[in-house]
């Protein structure tokens, strides 16, 4: 059975790098963050309405990748997902103080096997699409993600430390899935 593992957390916490490392380690595939693709195409000036378009793009990309992967991959493999709708929810609530009910409904309908929540202990790396370089804001966002994890039923762990420690924590958590 395909195991879906989502990597979430504030910006510049190593989510994409961790997905790439896990994909190489497990010789599998990963779904890139759609928000980055959207913002690169349309610019960093997003609106509240764009949040739903980003959510749609994320789920569509993920579903297409999972379907394609299931046709070609060995049985009982992992698919790593760089962010999911919890990220869109947290971002929407943080920036716009609200979240579209269609996004919330989709969160309830999506099924995953594990969340890897990346902590803010990596140094922030500047990027034209990143908005919050200060540690206090990143830490505040981390606690929003942690609250989301506490209030849902899928297993999750916090990923922290240097890159090697993070990778090992993630590998161990994925291995425990069976």
Please explain how this structure is put together.
There is one protein chain. The protein is α/β, with parallel strands linked by helices and 178 residues long. The protein is 55% helix and 13% strand. A 5-stranded parallel beta sheet has the order 2-3-1-4-5, sandwiched between helices. α1 crosses α7, α4 runs antiparallel to α5 (101-109) and α4 packs across α6. The longest helix has 25 residues, at 48-72. The radius of gyration is 15 Å and the shape is globular.
Please describe the structure with a list of short key phrases separated by commas or semicolons.
five-stranded parallel sheet, alpha/beta, 178 residues
Summary, kept brief:
With 178 residues, the protein is of the alpha/beta class. It contains seven helices and five strands; from the N terminus they run βαβααβααβαβα.
Q: Tell me the β content.
A: 5-15%
Low-pLDDT ranges: none
Q: First CA to last CA: what distance?
A: 10 Å
Helix/strand structural class: alpha/beta
Count of DSSP-assigned helices: 7
Question: Biggest sheet: strands, sense, closure?
Answer: 5 strands, parallel
Total number of strands:
5
Strand order of the largest sheet: 2-3-1-4-5
Q: How would you state the average pLDDT, rounded?
A: 91
Helix/strand order: EHEHHEHHEHEH
């Amino acid at each position: 059975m395909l195991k879906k593992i989502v990597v979430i957390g504030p910006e510049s916490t190593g989510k994409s790098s961790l997905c790439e490392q896990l994909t190489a380690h497990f010789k599998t595939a990963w779904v890139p963050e759609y928000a980055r693709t959207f913002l690169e195409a349309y610019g960093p000036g997003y609106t509240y309405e764009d949040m739903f378009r980003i959510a749609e793009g994320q789920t569509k990309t993920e579903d297409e990748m999972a379907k394609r992967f299931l046709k070609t991959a060995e049985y009982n493999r992992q698919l790593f997902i760089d962010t999911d709708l919890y990220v869109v929810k947290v971002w929407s609530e943080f920036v716009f103080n609200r979240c579209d009910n269609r996004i919330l409904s989709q969160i309830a309908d999506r099924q995953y096997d594990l969340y890897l929540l990346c902590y803010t202990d990596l140094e922030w790396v500047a990027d034209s699409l990143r908005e919050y370089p200060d540690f206090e804001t990143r830490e505040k966002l981390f606690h929003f993600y942690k609250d989301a994890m506490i209030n849902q039923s899928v297993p999750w762990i916090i990923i922290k430390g240097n890159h090697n420690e993070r990778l090992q924590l993630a590998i161990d958590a994925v291995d425990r899935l069976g």
